[in-house]
Amino acid sequence: MKVWEVMERDYPKVTLRTKILEAKALMKRTGTRILPVLRDLYDGVFEGFLTRYDVIKVTSLISDARAVDFMRIHPVLYLDMDIDEAAKVMVESGLKALPVLKSPQEPICVGTLSLRDLLRALISLGYSPKAKSINEVYTPEYVGVDADERINRVWAKFVEDHVPAVLVFKGDRLWGIITPKDLVDQRAWMFHREAEGKLPTPGKVKRFMTRGVVVAQVNMPVDEVAKFMVEHDFSLLPVVDDEGRVMGVVTQEDVVRAYLWGGKPSMEPVPVFAPAPPLVVETYQASRSMLQQVLVSKPIAAASRIKVSDVMDKELCVVKARDTIARARRLMLKTGKTHLLVDDGSGRIIGYVSRRGILRALTVKGPLWRRRARDPEFLEMIATFNPPVVSPDASIEEAAALMLYHNVDALLVKEGESLLGMLTKNDLAREYMQSMAGRAFVENLMHPGRMGVVTRHHSMGHVVRVMEMNYLDALVVADGERPIGLISENKMIFTPLEGRYGGIKRRRILWVRKLERAGRKMGRYVKVTPLLAEDFMVEPPPPVSPRVDVVEALRIMFEHDVDGVPVVDQDRLVGIITKSDVIRELARSSVKPMEERVEEALRQAKAGIKAKRQTMTNRKAPSISP
Fold first, then answer.
1. Hey, is 43 helix, strand or coil?
2. For the chain, which has fewer Cβ within 10 Å, the N-terminal or C-terminal residue?
3. According to CATH, what is the number of the domain 134-260?
C-alpha cells in the first residue's frame, strides 16, 4: 500500500508570513496536527511545516512571530512511499503527522499523512494486528506530574522533549491528562515568555488539563484500542492494572507497530479478553418530546439517474482575487448568483467566493472590545481555494455527498482540466423540486425542536455559529412558540453592516428588570452590542406542516427567495426545513451504492492478493521430473 492511497488530500495550510497565533487558531478550528507552510497558497510549493509543538512555542498574546520563524523542513513523505517506510519515518521522528510531497525533484505539497490516517486505512481494509494484546506493545515509561505543578514546567516538556502527553496525578491517583492539543485549544496558560512588562505567575496544570482519563489494560485487544484512537484521535492511553495503578502508556506508534511489525521483543503476549456486548436500554418518551427530538425515519430512497451535467450552471461570473468584498456583494446582487469564480489575475481559476464565505468574513464574534482591528477586505482573504471537483457524469446524489463531506455548498464541474460549470446547493434543491415529488415528507428531513431557532436578541455571531454547528442555511426567529421572522443565509450579506461614520453598526439595548407602580422603567443595564438577529431577519414565509411533501416546502423557498421554511404543527413551532436538509437527503441515497462499490473493490483486491500468492507458491514449488 502506498502513501497516496491513504493520505489526506484536503488539508489546511499557511504561508511563510502567517502569524504563529493565526496558525494556532487554525489548528484549534480544524483539529489538524500539522500545517504545511507553502510559498503561495495558489501554487502549493512546499517550504516547511508546523506541528502542535511549534505553535505553542509562542507564549505571548501579542507576539508577531511568523511561520517562517518556527517551521520545520524535514522529514517529509513522498507519494510513492510504502506505508511501512512512511510509518518508520514518523515513528523515528516522533511526529504523528507529516506533509506529503510529489517527489524529491518536485516539492509540491499534495497532502498530509498522520498515524491516525494510517490506522484508519489498515482497519477499513480488514488488516489484523500481528500483536493481539496491549501487553505486547505498550510503553512502560511515561511522564507524570502533580496537579499543582506549574504549566511552564509541562510546557517545557512538550517543546523541548516532544512528550506526546503528560499524566496528571493527585496523590497516587490518576486524575487527568494534558497534551499539546490542550494548549493549542486554550490561551489562558500563556505566561508571556516574550516579556511584556511584569511576568505573571504561571497557572497550575489542573486548570488546563483534561479531567477524567480513558484507560486501557494489558489484556485488551489491540484492534479495539486502535478503533478508539482513530475515532477520538487520542495520542496515547494510560495502561493500568486491576487496582487502577498506572503501568505505562500505549501510544499511536505502539498500535501502528502492532499492525505492521508485531510486538516488542521484551514484551510477552497474554490472553485477550472479549469485550462485552453493548447493552440496549429502552427509554420512554412522550409524543411531544419525540416530535421535537427525533425525525420520522424512512427507508433510503433509490438513487436517481440524473447526472451533474444535467443540472449544473454553465453561466459563470468571474472576479479577481484582489477585488474587494463590496464589489463581490454588488455583483451577486446584480446577477443573482450565489457563487463567483476567483481568478488569480493571470486567467487561472483558483477557487470561488460564496455568500456563506462573505457571511463568515463579515460576522463579528464576541463583544465589541474583542473585535479584530482590521476585517478582511479583499476576496483573496475569504475565497475557498482548491474547491472539491466533481465529474459531469457523476450522479447528483454523489455530488450531494461530496458537498456534505467537504462542508461546502458548491462544486466545480471538470472533465480533465476543462472547467465545464459549477454545481451549487440551489441547483440540487431546484432539481429535487422539479423531479422528485413524493420522495419524502417534511417530517423526514426537518431539524426538530429548538436546533434551528433563535430569539430576536441573539447576536449575529451566535446566529452564524448555530448555522455552522448544525449545517443550516436558515434559522427561525421565534417569540415563544410563534415564528416572527426568518434569517436566511442568502439574505444576510446584503444587510448594511457599516455605520454612518465607518465601522460596524451597533445597538444599544436597555434590559428592564421591573416596573414601579408609578410606571417608571427600572433599567438593569444598558448593553452596547453588534447587530442582532432582528436586524437580519425577514418576514417569515408561510409555514408548512410536518406531513406535507418536501417539494411544497421547496416551492415556498424559491417563491420567497429564502433558504428555509418554518414547520408548524397545531399552531406550534416544531422546527425548520432548509435547503441543506435536502442536500443531506440526496447524500443518503449515495451511501448504499458507495458501500457496494467499496465492498466490490475490496473483494477484487483480496482476490488479486490471493491469486498473486498462489502464483508465487507455484513458482517456488519444485518440479519433479519423471
1. coil
2. C
3. 3.10.580.10
